[in-house]
Amino acid sequence: MITSHVHNTICFLWVILFFFLTALPAATAQPVRAVYQSVANSKAVFLVEVGNPAPASLIIQHFHPQESRLIGTSPRADKIDDQSGNAKWFLKNVKAGIYPFSLSFNRKVAPETLRLIIRYREPQTGSFQEIVMRP
Amino acid sequence: MIKIDGEKIRQLRERQGLTQLYMATVVEVTTDTISRWENKRYPTIKEENGEKLAEALGVSLEDILLIETAPPDTTGEQNDLKSSAKVKNYRSRKTLTWVFGFVFLLLLGATAVYMYMKQATLYAIAAERIMPLSTLPNSPFPVVIEIRHSGTDPVSIIVKDTLPEGSEILEVSPVEGSSVQKNEVKWIRKLTETTRFSYLVKISGDAEKHFFSGEISTSKREETFKISGIQSIDAGLFHWADSNSDNSISDQEILTVFDYYSGIDDFTVDIEFIEKMWLGSSYSWDRDNQQILISP
User: Most buried of the four, A20, A72, B27, B121, by CB within 10 Å?
Assistant: First the structure.
């Protein structure tokens, strides 16, 4: 009788622990992710994936070598600074989905020289988040 | 009801030199009753009287309970088993009573907690003022009062915010249910969910710090809450979006502006101009011409 009670209690605690552990990654999962799709010759393409709930706005800052000049971006960057080697996008009224970005340079760029930073406010807590990504 | 051993009770009483009068007083019965219990071989009495009797004799209740003798054809071992079963039966009944009592109290407690939580869920309100920490003189800035209603019942509220001297309210949102008087803005509204009340204001005057105060009155319990959050703003040389007062709009600052202030309906916060400031390297306040200069 007592053994059965102990058994049931232990099972119950395991179930609680299981739910807690499985719910935890979902609660702490980042709503924004990014990945470089390709870096070939003078072109780089990266994807930004926005989950639900989506942040209201995002700032994407892409860094490239100072000796390379950015000759085109899609979508058009809000700010390009070739002197310090970076381009910025300010995305407003963001919705969940995948956003592709491409950059064309005047010369071949090495993947290891590229870097990407995404900044946003976490929609549920309002805390400022910064994600750094490399190819 | 329990059956007691009258003979044993008499023996225990006499051995301790106790009188029937003493026993009667302790058990709260008459001496005749005590006498009857002792003389009748196996009287049946109330359980609580049995407990008092045992207490008066300084023994446990089990010690004065009837232990039936075995019939002539049964073995002594069987007799022992039967007696022991009777005592066990009594003990288990007593335990059961305790368990039921405990469960009852537990349910009572749980019900009380549930009722309290339900009441709290029906009605839970908090108010916070969200606004910049500094602003330029005579330059409009937004103030948002966020009323968090996490209850399940709608509640009627009056939001009242009192502004510093020299304030001029330029826009309010929502317009419906609002009233603007000198240095005061009010809304009356039925609240079903978290709601934002906003206004665009500019402040003139020489003071360096300007204070705001506000309160929420509710229909429930006739309560009044103070609006928490930011209570004052500094008038100086920095744009309201420049929260760290470094003459430039950082990524974090533009994101904050956009998240907090851009979604206000019927409300003109000049986000585009702030975006231009963000795109520039820095800005400065031209006091003479009362305008902001942006450096590329």
Answer: B27
Tell me if B244 sits within 8 A of B234, measured CB to CB. Answer: no
pLDDT digits (tens, 9 = 90+) for A18-73: 444 444 444 446 789 999 999 998 999 999 999 989 998 999 999 999 999 999 99
| Rounded-to-integer distance, Cα B63 and Cα B48, Å | 15
Tell me which chain B residues have a C-beta less than 8 angstroms from the C-beta of A118.
none
Contact check, Cβ <8 Å, A57/B258: yes
Answer for the pair A97, A42: CB distance below 8 angstroms, yes or no.
no
Reported pTM: 0.60
- Give the pLDDT score at A77: 94
Residue in the structure block whose two tokens are 């990524």 = B251
CA-nearest residue of chain B to A91?
B255
**Residue A25: Cβ within 10 Å count:** 8
Give pLDDT, residue A91.
Answer: 92
Strand order of the sheet with strand B213-218?
B178-181, B184-191, B155-162, B213-218, B224-226
Contact present, B227 and B214 (Cβ < 8 Å): yes
Q: Do B278 and A90 touch (CB under 8 A)?
A: yes
* Contact of B133 with B243, CB cutoff 8 Å: yes
A vs B, Cβ pairs < 8 A, gives: 31
Instruction: Please give the radius of gyration of chain A, using alpha carbons only, rounded to the nearest integer.
Output: 22
Tell me how close the Cα of A4 comes to any Cα of chain B, in angstroms: 19
Residues, chain B = 296
Question: What's the number of CA atoms in the CB half-sphere (13 Å) around residue B214?
Answer: 33
What is the interface pTM, i.e. ipTM, of the complex?
0.72
- Using CA atoms, how far apart are residues B296 and B186, in angstroms rounded to an integer? 42
Question: Given phi > 0 = left and psi -120 to 50 = alpha, else beta, which region is A93?
Answer: left
